[in-house]
Amino acid sequence: MMTGGAWVFYFADAPTLLKNLLTGNASSIAYSTIFVMTSITYLFAGFMREQVCTFMCPWPRIQGAMLDERSLVVTYNDWRGEPRSRHQKKSEVNAQSGDCIDCNQCVVVCPMGIDIRDGQQLECITCALCIDACNGVMDKIGRPQNLISYSTLNDYEANVKGERTKTTWRSFIHGRTVIYSAIMAIAALSLLYVLVMRNQVEVNVLHNRNPIFILLSDGSIRNGYTVKILNKKLQPQEFVISVEGIPGLEMQVAGAETDAQKQVVLEVPANDLESVRLFLRATPSNLKGEQTPFNFIVRNKNDTEKITHEAVFYQPKN
């Protein structure tokens, strides 16, 4: 339920939506979306479980393509664990027996149900629970830890050959990891730059599709526009809308009984979008051809912020 709700909260004002959900005032779309997402989560986590990771999640394939002989992965050190003593008593274990006592704890704790002793597998999610379980068993039987450990293929093969190599942070610092780290750092810094430098206000102007223009009785021409202002700031803002670029251009709010205005004030709540429909009227003598460009000017009354949005005024063919 919480997972389904969290998805919905990404696309709406979370505190308001939560209040509406609890009071029964939320829209049917919100309730149906939460129900669908909750059902899918219950199906995936309750029934399909590890099958989702194995057959549906793309990450194992991506991870497998990025691995090489210097990648740090969860590894069963069979050079030390084999042959297994297979539940023999401590007194019965001979010198040829490995450290693995075949207790199966590594398999029991694995959320994917795999046996890491069979080698690196696609299903492994590198949670390292098998390492913790095995280290606990090794402590109880008086054997060294890290029978299952993080290791690289190079270090593993060196140990198989008898070169007792211990995996350290130097084992996986090489050109490939440096390049990957640099790419991720650049991507993170780019996202941070975009977030910090993004515009706090966005303006969008839509021209009426039908009719494109209206020829009035006095010979002037009227065009209709919808001006949308998105306020990304945490406080309500007042914006002053004006026009420039066409001499004598008059502006009026659609549906208002006021006369033509030089500017219109629009208040936009915090983190919200507001729109206003405007009628602009011009005389044909001040227009240049069928399409005359001009600008909407949006100024913030609270600061010096100014946004210019280009638009076109249409008139009939001569």
| Backbone structural class | alpha+beta
- Per DSSP, the total helix count is 10
Strand content: 15-25%
Q: How many structural domains in the coordinates?
A: 3
- The dominant shape is elongated
* CATH class category of the largest domain: Mainly Beta
Main beta sheet: strand number and arrangement? 5 strands, antiparallel
What does this molecule look like?
Strands 3, 4, 5, 7 and 9 form a five-stranded antiparallel beta sheet that branches. The chain has helices spanning 2-9, 14-23, 28-48, 50-56, 59-66, 78-81, 105-109, 129-141, 153-160, 175-197; strands at 73-76, 148-151, 201-207, 214-215, 221-231, 237-244, 250-253, 263-268, 272-282, 291-300, 306-314. It has three domains: 2-48, no CATH class; 68-167, no CATH class; 201-314, Immunoglobulin-like (Sandwich), CATH 2.60.40.10. The two termini are 63 Å apart. 34% of the residues lie in helices and 24% in strands. A hairpin with a 5-residue loop joins strand 4 and strand 5. The chain is of the alpha+beta class and 318 residues long. The protein is elongated and about 110 Å long. The mean pLDDT is 88. The chain has ten helices and eleven strands.
